[in-house]
Amino acid sequence: MSEAELLSQMDEVVIKVLNQSKVIALVGASPKPERASFRVMNYLLARGYDVIPVNPLKAGCDILGQPVVASLSEIDKPIDVVDVFRNSEAAGAVIDEAIQVGAKAVWLQLDVIHEAGAQRARDAGLDVVMDRCPKIEIPRLGIE
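RE: above sequence
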């Protein structure tokens, strides 16, 4: 498969995930406005997504008016996407937790790549997006 075909295939997954999702668990959420996770969370909330911040160090606090939970297992509704703002090394454990809680997709942010974890997710039936940012992809792909 050519690089162009691979990119097109990934765009199709991105479009599917963003169009079919409402509930996004944002792992690595930060209350600091200068952090990418804060800006992306704010953007997704403004677009109407239900974003649940996940950060064990901030559990019990609010980020952008949303209560923070310590782990995915604390979320009491079905999770469409687990958006991972952790480094590549930590991403594998987050992917495994996403599989365990029955998420429909995992999204690894820019520069976050974990091929083995991505394969485990795909094998479990999850859609996988790696090394992309929804705040960039939504306008680039013209997603409403």
